[in-house]
Amino acid sequence: MSGEKKAKPVVNLVRLNGTMPISPQAYDAFGYPGLTKRELIAAMLTQGLMSSDAEGNLTKDACVKIGVEHADALLLELAR
To answer: Residue 13: helix, strand or coil by DSSP?
Structure first.
């Protein structure tokens, strides 16, 4: 089985990628300025959910939870 590739530690890559800034700038004492990739993706998904729910069936909390879950799923898939 020497020809087999080792599986990437996907969860670690997602965690690392999700915490990276969307637009890397200088690192200062407070860390990177701005949003992380995970925060941006979650915000965009949440905005889409809230704007498409004309009947008001989704609560704000549900939209946020779904947005974060989908952001994590996207980062996981991109790390593969």
So the answer is: helix
Q: Model-level pTM greater than 0.85? A: no
Give me the tens of pLDDT residue by residue for the chain, a chain 80 residues long: 455 555 455 555 556 666 776 666 666 666 666 778 888 999 999 999 999 988 889 998 999 999 999 999 998 888 88
Residue ranges covered by each domain of the chain: 10-79
CB-based contact 17:36 (threshold 8 Å)? no
3-class SS at 16? helix
